[in-house]
Amino acid sequence: MLANILVGLVALIHLYIVYLEMVLWDTPRGHKAFGLKPDFATASKVLAANQGLYNGFLVAGLIWGLWLGTAGFQVKMFFLLCVVVAGLYGAATVSRKILYIQAVPAALALAALWIGW
User: Fold this and answer.
1) In the prediction, which pLDDT does 100 show?
2) Label partner for 29 (CA 20 to 30 A): which of 23, 61, 68, 117?
3) In whole angstroms, what is the distance from residue 27 CA to residue 20 CA?
4) Ramachandran sector of residue 105 (left: φ over 0; alpha: ψ -120 to 50; beta: rest)
5) CB within 8 Å of 55: residues ≥ 6 apart
6) For residue 69, how many other CB atoms are within 10 A of its CB?
7) Which residues, at least 6 apart from 56, have a Cβ–Cβ distance to it below 8 Å?
8) Separation between Cα atoms, residue 42 and residue 60, nearest integer Å
9) In this structure, is the dihedral angle defined by the CA atoms of residues 67, 72, 73 and 77, taken in order, positive or negative?
């Protein structure tokens, strides 16, 4: 039960990231969220939308795993591992903030799922 709540939370976090990257990237809200200058945001808008699409696939996988219930254990494990790896890479290459926003919640959900909570 706790694991599924945490998986749902990770999916919601990534759903918001999708929205930020695909819709709000070139707005004051997107600039603030990602620390962007308007010129850079305009120039990189298409790249951000592509990145948002990939985050959308993570959301889809996590929701699919939740929808499958107990049969979705491996699906949830796989997509949570993908989120952890992406979060670690982002923290190492872009901003340490990504570690706390993406990787830590996914790692907690992964641990709860593994333990059987």
Assistant:
1) 96
2) 61
3) 9
4) alpha
5) 14, 17, 18, 21
6) 9
7) 14, 15, 18, 22
8) 27
9) negative
* pLDDT at site 32: 94
pLDDT in tens, the chain (117 residues): 999 999 999 999 999 999 999 999 999 999 999 999 999 999 999 999 999 999 999 999 999 999 999 999 999 999 999 999 999 999 999 999 999 999 999 999 999 999 999
Compute the distance between CA of residue 7 and CA of residue 113 in angstroms, rounded to an integer.
9
Residue 6 corresponds to which amino acid?
Answer: L
Is the pTM for the entire model greater than 0.90? yes
Distance, CA of 41 to CA of 47 (rounded, Å) = 10
Percent of residues in the chain assigned helix, strand, coil, to nearest 5:
85, 0, 15
